[in-house]
Specification:
This protein has about 70 residues and is α+β, with helices and mostly antiparallel strands. Helices cover about 30% and strands about 30% of the residues. The chain has helices at about 5, 30-40, 45-50; strands spanning about 10-15, 20-25, 60-65, 70. The chain is globular, with a radius of gyration of 12 Å.
């Protein structure tokens, strides 16, 4: 199994206002991005479980043009 940190170019978190935290996972190229996206390893439900939240409290999207996965809690 390959670790996410080995595949991603950048993994970061940042405040997105006083009550929201955003996570960005960015990839160097489309092939690696699609590999992770299609694996199902990172989803709204996975992020929600990691932080003990209901899925509807996680804003989650794939940004194909930037080869990035973003989640906000």
């Amino acid at each position: 199994m390959t670790l996410l940190g080995e595949l991603a170019r950048l993994i970061r978190s940042k405040n997105a206002g006083p009550f929201e935290l955003t996570f960005d996972i960015m990839f160097e190229n489309d092939a690696t991005y699609q590999r992770v996206k299609n694996s199902g390893a990172i989803t709204r439900d996975v992020v929600a479980r990691c932080y003990g939240l209901p899925p509807e409290q996680v804003k989650f999207f794939f940004c194909d043009s930037a080869y990035a996965i973003k989640a906000s809690i």
